[in-house]
Automatic annotation (TrEMBL), chain A:
A matching Pfam family: oligo_HPY
PANTHER family hit by this protein: DIPEPTIDE TRANSPORT ATP-BINDING PROTEIN DPPD, OLIGOPEPTIDE TRANSPORT ATP-BINDING PROTEIN APPD
Protein name in the entry: Methionine ABC transporter ATP-binding protein
Keywords: ATP-binding, Cell membrane, Membrane, Nucleotide-binding, Transport
Compartment(s): Cell inner membrane
CC per GO annotation: plasma membrane
Mode of membrane association: Peripheral membrane protein
From TrEMBL, chain B:
UniProt topology in membrane: Multi-pass membrane protein
Domain of life where this protein originates: Bacteria
Compartment list: Cell membrane
Pfam families xref list: BPD_transp_1, BPD_transp_1_N
InterPro entries (alphabetical): BPD_transp_1_N, MetI-like, MetI-like_sf
Family that this chain belongs to: Belongs to the binding-protein-dependent transport system permease family.
Protein name in the entry: ABC transporter permease
Length: 326, 324
């Protein structure tokens, strides 16, 4: 196995708390790897810490958020230790990001041209004319008709799907090695969603770009990702290749998630739910965070379970599910 | 764009016309100028002659139409007190007020905007908190008191700056301006500072609030995710969004500076329009009051229009063509 492009180990991201005192752990001891050209689906409910994980890698946490400990090794360099300027040179150039809501991602008072040209010139010292040409070509690449004219438009003159294409075009401007996509299709219509996903897949495959696709949508992950990492209440609970995790989930939470997705194979059977609610990060139960909602929990679960290796996978559970749920 | 400008002009015309009615009636009810203008010893014949001379013997509606007819010819009537055209009297004072207002607004922007930006970007720093506390003082200290204190400290105690008047002026664009001479500038400084204090606090707080509203937006995060330098994120992405509310307030405040600089002009004996209007109200000099109010209405109409045009430049989502 080659060395992975990105290797996050024991990442802890805290909000508040400084100088010895510990704050709220939005991301707690998370480790995962992304190989070049592979797609990792980072799955979890709202508040599970998946977006914060993405922003931690980008070092774009908003105060009072901060990386408390852990390593983020990107191509041999620990991003958590870089200076702000060194990190800036990586952002947008080697690691790009696509956000959830295309309505909010583009600055409403600047033209697409301004926003694309500045992105080119942030990393490459080229003339405005050349930067403009690259911007135009990038727009063409993501399937925006008559890119030349559209350059001088403002974001509000685009539809949601088109805007997300613009955002993807900006992300691809510098042919990044890694793209972090934070629910890029959640805010879009289903038909547009599927177009964007295919487009995204095509472009990243062509350029051998690695992708972290953050989502709560298992259907997208099953279609797009090579590997999957499931997060719950700030911790990674299960990770491994998509095919085996989705067909044979080991962690009760993963199993519950899969069972709660409507499927044609379970027609007529009431949809399963995971009982209870995701606990607030301020009042997590002691030990395994999923304990209170889990029907397999025992007294053993009062201690936080370690990540147990299972073949090529990891499961954070003392009582993993043994058989595939059907 | 053109159609909307024409529509705006018509709207403005109606506003001005409506104002003439309100102003004319309002001024007529506040008192009878005849009592002040005529020597109490004058006999009935003399009284009647003066009343007829000013056209005050006609019924109010007729006076109004005579006034409108004059207005159409650009004539606001002659001042009862000075016996000269009211409009000329006001325009003569305009440069004094204008330079005071512009200087005050300039100070307010140059000081308020950067400080507000700083306080918004680093809200938890002690310096930011000091700035914000200072702005509360700027908001709440009464103008006249601050003016007196400024005179006390800088003129009386330290003797650095003159207490009142405009100092030597120079002719420029048909008006007399203080800022063209160095001594005039020294005269201008204190009243301008006095007038600027409140506006500075206002712009400062507005800017800070704007920064705090814009900073958490996704597009700022995305701008950073593109790898832009922090300087560009602030100077382009934050500032351009911030300018929208700031321009509105600056525009309107400029109008109010011109219209309501009365207190400062009185304290510093600055011979501007504010002082003229106070004197005119005391003497019930109707034509001057009416002419002054009309000019103010016009000023606000024009300012609002300019602000709207600035909007379309700053915010592409606003278009004048769309139904207003």
């Amino acid at each position: 196995m080659t060395t992975p492009l990105l290797s996050v180990s024991n990442l802890v991201t805290e909000f508040g708390g400084e100088k010895g005192a510990s704050g709220l752990k939005a991301v707690n001891d998370v480790s995962f790897k992304v190989e070049r050209g592979r797609v990792l689906g980072l799955v979890g409910e709202s508040g599970s810490g998946k977006s914060v994980t993405g922003f931690s890698v980008m070092r774009l946490l908003e105060r009072p958020g901060r990386i408390a400990s852990g390593q983020i090794i990107f191509d041999g360099v620990d991003l958590a230790r870089l200076s702000n300027e060194e990190m800036r040179q990586i952002r947008g150039k080697r690691i790009a990001m696509v956000f959830q809501d295309p309505m909010m991602t583009l600055n409403p008072v600047l033209t697409i041209e301004t926003q694309m040209v500045e992105a080119v010139r942030a990393h490459d010292q080229v003339s405005k004319t050349i930067a403009r040409q690259r911007a135009r070509d990038a727009l063409g690449l993501v399937g925006i008709p008559s890119p030349e004219e559209r350059l001088s438009s403002y974001p509000h003159q685009f539809s949601g799907g088109m805007r997300q294409r613009v955002v993807i075009a900006i992300a691809l401007l510098h042919k990044p090695e890694l793209i972090i996509a934070d629910e890029p299709t959640t805010a879009l219509d289903v038909t547009i969603q599927s177009q964007i996903i295919s487009e995204f897949q095509k472009l990243t495959e062509e350029s051998d770009t690695a992708v972290i696709w953050i989502t709560h949508d298992l259907a997208i992950v099953s279609r797009l990702a090579d590997d999957i990492a499931v997060m719950y209440a700030g911790r990674l609970v299960e990770s491994g290749p998509v095919s085996s995790v989705l067909t044979d989930p080991k962690h009760p939470y993963t199993a519950g998630l899969i069972a709660s997705v409507p499927s044609r194979n379970r027609r007529g059977v009431p949809l399963r739910q995971i009982p209870g609610m995701t606990p607030a990060i301020t009042m997590l139960p002691k030990g395994c965070s999923f304990r209170t909602r889990c029907d397999r929990a025992t007294d053993e679960c009062l201690v936080v379970p370690p990540l147990f290796p299972q073949q090529e996978r990891f499961v954070r559970c003392f009582h993993p599910v043994m058989k595939a749920m059907t | 764009m053109v159609t909307s400008i024409i529509r705006r002009l018509f709207q403005a015309l109606f506003v001005v016309l409506a104002m003439t009615v309100i102003v004319f009636i309002g001024v007529s009810v506040i008192g009878n100028p005849v009592d002040i203008l005529i020597n109490p010893d004058a006999n009935q014949v003399e009284r009647a002659r003066v009343i007829a001379h000013y056209g005050l013997d006609e019924p109010l509606w007729k006076q109004y139409f005579i006034f409108l007819r004059g207005l159409a010819q650009g004539d606001f009537g002659d001042s009862f007190v000075y016996g000269r055209p009211a409009l000329g009297l006001i325009l003569e004072r305009l440069p004094a007020t204008l330079e005071l207002a512009i200087a005050a607004l300039g100070i307010a922007i140059v000081v308020g905007l950067p400080l507000g930006l700083y306080a918004g970007l680093y809200p938890s720093r002690i310096s930011s908190r000091t700035i914000m506390t200072g702005s509360i003082l700027g908001f709440s200290l009464p103008t006249f008191w601050v003016g007196l204190m400024l005179i006390m400290i800088f003129s009386v105690e330290l003797g650095w700056l003159p207490t009142n008047g405009r100092g030597p002026t120079l002719e420029f664009l048909g008006g007399q301006w203080s800022f063209l001479t160095s001594d005039g500038l020294r005269h201008l400084l204190l009243p301008a500072l006095n007038l600027a204090l409140f506006k500075t606090s206002l712009i400062l707080r507005l800017t800070r609030a704007g920064v705090q509203e814009v900073l958490p937006q996704d597009y700022i995060k995305f701008a950073r995710a593109k790898g832009l330098r922090e300087r560009r994120v602030i100077a382009v992405h934050v500032l351009k969004n911030l300018m929208i509310p700031v321009v509105t307030i600056v525009g309107l405040e400029f109008g109010s500076l011109i219209a309501f600089s009365v207190v400062t002009e009185s304290i510093f004996a600055w011979p501007g329009m504010g002082k003229l209007i106070i004197d005119s109200i005391n003497l019930l000099d109707r034509p001057v009051i009416v002419a002054y109010l009309m000019i103010m209405v016009l000023l606000f109409v024009v300012l609002n229009f300019v602000i709207d045009i600035c909007y379309t430049i700053l915010d592409p989502r606003v278009r004048l063509d769309s139904k207003a």
